[in-house]
Amino acid sequence: MTTNFDEIAAEYKRAKQQPWRLHLEHFTLFKLLGDLQGKSVIDLACGEGFYTRFIKRRGAARVVGVDISQGMINLARREEESNSLGIDYLVQDVKQLKIDETFDVVVAAYLLNYAQTSDQLLEMCSAITRHLKPGCRFVTVNNNPQHSVDYFPSTRKYGFIKRAHGPLIDGTPVDYIFFLGDESLEITNYHLSVETHESAFKAAGFQHITWHKPELSADIVDDTERHYWSDFLEHPPVVFIECVK
Ligand SMILES: C[S@@+](CC[C@H](N)C(=O)[O-])C[C@H]1O[C@@H](n2cnc3c(N)ncnc32)[C@H](O)[C@@H]1O
């Protein structure tokens, strides 16, 4: 189990190739992000730049990616060197994020679920509001704190399961185990309740907070295929949150 992405940077890239990433995660995230044309965007916990590059290709004018892992940022910069999009990548802990700039949009795919306490979550949320222009949005996809452990096994057919180290109370470690052919990859997140998130968002200065379930891509038209995703949609393991400063 790890939360250190330096050790697993290359394997994690493979975990992003699972079909649910495209049909649900990518689809819902970019539906919520809407028109990015000409906007300044910062992607927090950007990893190796998986979504950062999509954001730039969607027409964002200025894009910055930030991650705590030097290994992930090395991969992102390598990609930028071979196929330059004009993205700046920085190694920083979001809890102490300090960039002398504010952005039109702040994005984070799987950042908040690394906060182990309400104080750490507040540090992250405060860093986000400090770097967001007034009236602008933070959009994130994250572990869903309302996903009941009873339904954890039902994501096995999508290529991963979650495993909780105890009852789902604030601070309980929740592992994501990705099945990648003959190998598996385990990543540890931390449970924090919906109420703890709402308190941190409000204390950090967010005005409007909306939780969204994943949506299935409109490109999936076949009934059998749509039915295949029903467990994911009915008991979502991940959730999307939109906050307005
Ligand atoms: C599950 S990966 C997601 C990467 C990318 N957003 C994606 O969706 O492919 C989580 C990332 O969060 C980063 N991370 C965890 N805690 C962080 C922190 N406090 N500040 C910045 N990055 C952090 C990890 O290094 C890792 O790259």
Task: Give an account of the 3D structure.
The chain has 245 residues and is of the alpha/beta class. The protein has a single domain, classed as Rossmann fold (3-Layer(aba) Sandwich). Helix content is 32%, strand content 27%. It is built from eight helices and ten strands. β6 and β7 form a beta hairpin. α5 runs parallel beside α6. It binds S-adenosylmethionine. The site of S-adenosylmethionine has 18 residues, from α3.
State the secondary-structure class.
alpha/beta
Query: The CATH topology is what?
Result: Rossmann fold
Count of DSSP H/I helices: 8
Tell me the distance between the termini.
Answer: 35 Å
**Mean pLDDT over the residues:** 95
Assign the CATH architecture. Answer: 3-Layer(aba) Sandwich
Which ions, cofactors or small ligands are bound in this entry?
S-adenosylmethionine
Strand order of the largest sheet: 3-2-1-4-5-10-9
Number of discrete domains: 1
In short:
With 245 residues, the chain is of the alpha/beta class. It has helices spanning 9-15, 19-33, 50-57, 70-82, 118-130, 194-204, 223-228, 230-234; strands at 40-44, 62-67, 88-91, 103-109, 132-143, 160-164, 173-180, 183-190, 208-212, 238-244.
Overview features:
binds S-adenosylmethionine; alpha/beta; Rossmann fold; globular
